[in-house]
Design brief:
The complex is a heterotrimer of chains A (88), B (900) and C (172).
Chain A: E1 3-6, E2 10-13, E3 18-22, H1 36-44, E4 52-58, E5 66-72, E6 78-80
Antiparallel strand pairs in A: 1-2, 3-4, 4-5, 5-6
Chain B: E1 13-22, E2 25-31, H1 35-41, E3 48-49, E4 56-57, E5 70-73, E6 79-83, E7 94-97, E8 113-125, H2 129-140, E9 145-148, H3 159-164, E10 168-171, E11 174-180, E12 184-190, E13 206-218, E14 222-225, E15 237-239, H4 240-250, E16 257-262, H5 265-277, E17 280-286, H6 293-301, E18 306-308, E19 311-317, E20 323-330, E21 333-338, E22 341-345, E23 347-350, H7 353-357, E24 362-365, E25 370-373, E26 384-386, H8 389-392, H9 411-414, E27 418-420, E28 425-426, H10 427-435, H11 441-448, H12 461-472, H13 476-479, H14 493-497, H15 514-519, E29 524-527, E30 530-533, H16 543-556, E31 559-562, E32 567-572, H17 576-583, E33 596-602, E34 608-618, E35 621-626, H18 631-644, E36 652-655, E37 660-666, H19 670-677, E38 693-698, E39 701-706, E40 715-721, H20 725-733, E41 739-740, H21 743-752, H22 779-783, H23 791-794, E42 805-812, E43 824-827, E44 839-847, E45 856-862, E46 871-876, E47 879-886
Parallel strand pairs in B: 1-7, 8-9, 8-13, 9-10, 13-26, 15-22, 16-17, 16-22, 17-18, 31-41
Antiparallel strand pairs in B: 1-2, 3-4, 5-6, 5-7, 11-12, 12-13, 14-23, 19-20, 20-21, 24-25, 27-28, 29-30, 31-37, 32-35, 32-36, 33-34, 34-35, 37-40, 38-39, 39-40, 42-45, 42-47, 43-44, 43-46, 44-45, 46-47
Chain C: H1 2-7, E1 19-22, E2 25-30, E3 34-39, E4 51-56, E5 59-64, H2 75-83, E6 88-91, E7 96-102, H3 106-110, E8 128-133, E9 136-144, E10 147-153, H4 157-167
Classes of the chains: A mainly beta (88), B alpha+beta (900), C alpha+beta (172).
Chain lengths: 88, 900, 172
């Protein structure tokens, strides 16, 4: 059970949150301009590092805000991602 | 014969004798005894038997380190594999001996278990001297403190001060079993086990504590480690510290005539205590060649011989296998002693299990002769510390010669050197593992099963590491230890469930009309967590007949159903139209106030995610409906896109599912019924057209009426604030001749129209085009190159292959045989024995139809739209039904009936 | 007419009421409160005689006395709509229902199914938290040292009432 830092509600149990996967994967500006391979890369391919990973969560049972944290995938250390102003 | 001393026993209440039984034999005991102390006090030495060897086993330890004495509790709710050293006695306690494993009691355990969450700034695990000190220091800082201790009471002189502190919660009889991520600790509190039949029925027998702590302090002390030798498992062989503890806590002599063999000073002190209690000690042996002089003097004063540099090389058993002789090899050779007690102690293992569980590293300490806490867990946000000299390994005073772990044992004897008595695993198994090429302690553990029993290596684990180091010829530091994982001690599943059982195991969601359905005795269908009326049988009517009657009523007359579970979302904001254009395949921004439009949502991969309706309530307010099952996920999706991709769009979303109770009114006579209930509402086809909504007074109630049809018939949805849901249901039901129908009829009616149910007729691999709903994709958006979620995926080559699975209809060729949902579609006449049978698709929905006069089905079929008229076999449980492929809209394909 | 229609209202518990009473605990339901969901403003909506709970950065729940209006939308929602242009104002009087817990044991009962920290030092009077209680999503606001107001979706109300009765047995 992780404890995640909701920016509004504070630290809460992981069960209150939904997982949003890797952060920083923006929806393409003009999807129609992408070929099938590039579109598939956007849809399906994500980083899966051993170590620090920037990821999105949504406080589904709380304030329903999306936010970004950095989590270490080995130790589960979690720190708020101050740099990430946008949650995409 | 009794080994109970006339006085003494810090835990005993001698004024309260009780009687317990083992295998039907009565045993006297006192309140405060454990099963182990009661048995020892009555000289009952046999407690269990080896799981494979069948060898007799007795009590070895005094607490969680016990690896031998497990019993089956048969009184009360019963419990398998209970450690005799931690089982507190009570009047009527009844146990049975077991051979290595117990059994799950028959029937349901109706005793009460519960859970509690607790929050604190400091959690102290262990209420000994160091733990109490740490807890008082924390409490003095004004923060919330929780102290867990597995004993019945704290014995420290400051315990009263601690317990009475307003910010301190002391949990006794409480074992912390898990240290999970981010200082989520799980503890088991045994609340009424020790009371037996006197336990109040409403008090939870055990409680699972979820403690969220900012900081954790471990004051868990040590666990005693044995020494090993051939035939080390006989009843009568005990840990020396445990033996002395039985004297002190329970006033019990663990034996009358004994030998003590130790490897550290604390063991010598235990020998002194045993001698003082009246155990005739023939000799005390120490593996070391030098010991603390004061302890040697103490033994000498009591006339107990001390032999240094000595080791036990074997034991003999009597006819029952109980210890009666010890072979002790000293500097002068092997001497045999007649005894009933051999007390051994190899050292004290710091109780590092929780440290390790939390991610702390362990290191071998030569000084402590054990694994001690080394590097703390890496996450500095969750401080973890240890206190107490015992845990940190600062006691010790041990020098460890090679015999510290195990002497020179030949292979024949090695098979009787038990390293995990509960698993009957031996030194021979470790040697075998080595011969098999295993060198890692983790591999040896799995190969030999040592440390995998319910004591999880607390008794023999560290010893085994030492033995393995000897076998490998490597230092202990190189061998290392296995990883400790939760739980520290076993806990029952019932405790994990807590109160989440029976009716409370999963929330049941009900609508505002639920009491009406219950009163009508209606069978309910589970739809997610919702309970929905399935069908409304008349007296003696089968489900089949009821559904046919309900279907006929809607097709030919008028019916009503509780549609309240429909997901509903209000969208507010100037940009909602633009937002909806981006998430639905259709065009929503052009919708006029007062109008309703059907919409399909796709995932970015182009697959259908949900469908529903969009109503425009005002310039900047819209109402979306979703399928019952997807109400939450559609809201999630809208918020995710708006917050993370389109924060510039002015749009906000509020779930209003339960705000509105909904009565669906469907059938050719529905307009007449509505007109009667709402005399002020213009219900004419011109005044209230299909896919429009109106606010109206219906039966005196405030109602939003939507002219929507999920049956193909003239139909309305009546949305009322849910407080009036029951009143609206009653009003419509008493309007005259309106037939209530349930979810089954709803499914038949929609399937007759070819309306797919997202999640039943789709499965995340189906595009709108596959469903034959290309019409739901806005040609205007496509023409203007406007993007929407899923648009790019829908134009991939892969999305437009002609052999994709399409939604089609099926009817049985014989016009009468029912088709089963889930049937696989294969070539007509395919040989079902010639596996694998090539498959072309599967049946997603199947019903009997009074309107069509034949059973029918919806199916996903490879290239289905090009195969209309083709015959296939629909196979369910090896039985084929010959079917013909049809259009997926078998009933009223022109849609003439929806206007009544 | 209005009185007759008002008499037809039913709370989510139907004819049953939540009525738990112990030496240091009472739990009752308060059906028919006027509840309004307000989004899109960072200033607290003010309504006479109402509690206003902050649920998110720009999200509020107004918890006002019962209304005697027979309408699709409560008058409080209608007036907030004009008072807060640009905000989203939605009547949720029937969407959620209110359970009121009072007494020193109130917090202890909730701790049997809720991982939220409800200590008054963490949740002072006037503050509100959202999370899970007994597998249902709830918001919990404090109105006094020993008084909590709990809002739950109406469809979960019977489940939660049953759970609260069960969780209270050791406190009665």
């Amino acid at each position: 059970m992780l404890t995640l830092p909701c920016p509004f509600c504070g630290p809460r149990d992981e069960t209150e949150f939904g997982y949003g996967g890797e952060a920083g994967v923006a929806y393409p500006e003009r999807p129609a301009d992408l070929d099938d391979a590039a579109w598939a890369e956007y849809l399906f391919l994500r980083a899966n590092p051993r170590g620090w990973f920037t990821e999105r969560w949504v406080h589904r049972a709380g304030c329903r805000q999306w936010f970004t944290v950095r989590r270490h995938t080995v130790t589960n250390e979690v720190v708020p991602d101050a740099a990430a102003q946008e949650v995409r | 014969m009794s080994s109970r001393l006339p006085t003494g026993g810090t835990r005993l209440d001698r004024s309260r004798p009780v009687t317990i039984s083992i295998d039907g034999q009565d045993v006297p005991a006192f309140v405060g005894d454990t099963l182990a102390s009661a048995l020892l006090g009555s000289d009952v030495r046999l407690v269990s038997a080896g799981i494979y060897s069948g060898r007799p086993r007795g009590v070895m330890g005094v607490g969680a380190e016990e690896s031998n004495a497990f019993v089956q509790v048969t009184s009360g709710p019963g419990e398998p594999m209970v450690r005799a050293t931690e089982l507190e006695v009570h009047e009527g306690l009844s146990v049975e001996r077991i051979a290595g494993r117990g059994w799950l009691p028959e029937g349901i355990d109706h005793t009460r278990y519960d859970k509690v969450w607790a929050h604190c700034e400091v959690l102290v695990v262990g209420g000994g001297e160091a733990g109490v000190t740490a807890a008082l220091e924390a409490a003095a800082r004004g923060v919330r403190v929780v102290v867990c201790d597995d004993r019945p009471a704290l014995t420290d002189a400051r315990a009263g001060e601690l317990v009475s502190h307003p910010d301190v919660r002391v949990l006794t009889r409480t074992t912390v079993v898990g240290a999970h991520d981010h200082h989520h600790l799980v503890a088991v509190e045994r609340r009424t086990d020790h009371l037996g039949d006197d336990a109040p029925p409403d008090v939870a027998r055990r409680r699972l504590w979820h403690v969220k702590a900012a900081e954790v302090v471990l004051a868990t002390g040590t666990q005693e480690r044995p020494l090993v030798f051939p035939d080390n498992d006989r009843p009568g062989v005990m840990l020396a510290g445990a033996a002395a503890t039985y004297v002190r806590r329970y006033g019990v002599l663990p034996g009358h005539r004994g030998v003590v063999w130790v490897a550290h000073d604390d063991g010598l002190a235990d020998a002194v205590a045993l001698a003082d209690a009246g155990v005739e000690l023939l000799v005390v042996a120490d593996v070391r060649t030098t010991v603390t002089p004061a302890l040697a003097d103490a033994l000498a004063e009591r006339g107990v011989p001390l032999v240094l540099g000595a080791e036990v090389v074997g034991t003999d058993g009597d006819d029952d296998g109980f210890l009666y002789r010890v072979h002790l090899r000293g500097p002068d050779g092997v001497v045999v002693h007649d005894v009933d007690l051999l007390a051994v102690s190899g050292g004290l293992n710091p109780a590092v299990q929780l440290w390790s569980q939390a991610g702390g590293k362990l290191a071998w300490s030569t000084e402590a002769a054990g694994f001690v806490p080394a590097a703390p867990p890496p996450d500095a946000a969750y401080p973890l510390s240890v206190v107490g000299s015992a845990l940190t390994g600062a006691t010790g005073a041990v020098t460890a010669p090679a015999t510290f772990f195990c002497g020179d044992v030949d292979d024949a004897d090695a098979a009787r050197v038990y390293l995990d008595p509960q698993r009957d695993a031996t030194l021979a198994d470790v040697r075998h593992a080595h011969l098999a090429g295993l060198t890692s302690v983790e591999h040896v553990k799995r190969f030999t099963t040592i440390g995998t029993a319910s004591d999880q290596g607390r008794g023999f684990g560290v010893l085994t590491v030492g033995v393995l180091a000897q076998v490998l010829g490597r230092p202990v530091t190189e061998v290392g230890t296995t990883t400790y994982r939760p739980p520290y001690t076993p806990l029952p599943f019932g405790l994990l469930a807590g109160r989440d059982r029976g009716a409370l195991s999963d929330p049941v969601r009900v609508t505002a009309m639920h009491d009406r359905h219950l009163a009508a005795g209606v069978p309910l269908e589970d739809v997610g967590q919702w309970k929905r009326p399935w069908y409304f049988p008349q007296r003696g009517e089968s489900m089949h007949d009821a559904v046919l009657r309900e279907c006929r009523a809607v097709r030919e007359d008028v019916g009503m159903m509780d549609a309240s579970t429909l997901g509903k979302i209000v969208c507010h904001g100037a940009d909602v139209g633009e937002m909806l254009d981006r998430v639905y395949t259709g065009l929503m921004s052009s919708l006029k106030v007062g109008k309703v439009r059907y919409g399909v949502m796709c995932s970015p991969d182009g697959m259908v995610a949900d469908d529903g309706t969009v109503a425009r309530l005002s310039d900047d307010e819209w109402l979306l409906t979703t399928t019952t099952g997807n109400a939450a996920s559609v809201l999630d999706t809208l918020e995710e896109w708006q917050q993370t991709e389109w924060p510039d769009l002015d749009a906000r979303f509020t779930s209003v599912t339960e705000q509105w109770a909904v009565v669906a009114l469907a059938g050719p006579r529905s307009r007449d019924v509505l007109a009667g209930l709402a005399p002020d509402l213009d219900v004419s086809a011109e005044g209230f057209a299909f896919m429009e909504w109106r606010d109206a007074t219906v039966a005196g109630l405030p109602v939003r009426v939507m002219r929507i049809s999920f049956s193909g018939e003239l139909a309305y949805e009546l949305h009322v604030p849910a407080a009036w849901g029951g009143a609206l249901w009653d009003a419509v039901a008493s309007a005259g001749g309106v037939t209530p129908y349930g979810t089954e009829t709803m499914h038949v009616l929609r399937a007759e129209k070819g309306y797919p149910i997202v999640g039943q007729d789709t499965d995340g691999t189906v595009t709108p085009v596959d469903l034959g709903m290309a019409w739901a994709i806005s040609p205007k958006k496509v023409r203007e190159g406007r993007d929407f979620v899923g648009a790019r995926s829908l134009v991939r080559d892969e999305s437009n292959r002609p052999d994709r699975r399409h939604l089609v209809g099926l009817v049985p060729v014989d016009g009468s045989t029912a088709i089963a949902e889930g049937s696989q579609l294969v070539d007509a006449g395919a040989d079902l024995a010639a596996v694998p049978v090539p498959m072309h698709g599967h049946v997603t929905s199947a019903y009997a139809s009074v309107a069509l006069g034949t059973p029918f089905a919806l199916a996903l079929l490879d290239g289905g739209r090009d195969r209309l008229g083709e015959e296939l076999d629909a196979v369910d449980l090896r039985v084929p039904v010959r079917v013909r492929v049809t259009e997926p809209v078998p009933y009223d394909p022109e849609g003439e009936r929806r206007d009544g | 007419m209005t009185a007759e229609v008002l008499a037809l209202r039913e709370g989510p518990l139907g004819t049953e009421r939540l009525d738990v009473s112990g030496p240091a605990l009472t739990i009752v339901d308060e059906p028919f409160r006027t509840l309004v969901d307000v989004r899109g403003t960072t200033t607290a909506p003010v309504v006479d005689g109402a509690w206003t709970w902050r649920l998110g950065p720009d999200w509020w729940l107004v918890d006002a006395p019962a209304s005697d209006a027979v309408a699709l939308e409560s008058p409080v929602a209608t007036s907030l709509r004009s008072a807060l242009p640009g905000a989203s104002v939605v009547d949720v009087s029937s969407l959620r229902t209110v359970f009121v817990l009072t007494g020193p044991d109130a917090r202890a009962v909730l701790a049997h199914g809720c991982s939220l920290d409800l200590d008054p030092r963490v949740l002072p009077v006037g503050a509100c938290v959202q999370g899970m209680l007994a597998q249902a999503q709830v918001s919990i606001g404090r109105t006094d040292a020993d008084a909590l107001r709990l809002h739950v979706r109406a469809s979960f109300a019977r489940h939660l009432a049953a759970w609260l009765r069960d969780a209270s047995v050791e406190y009665l």
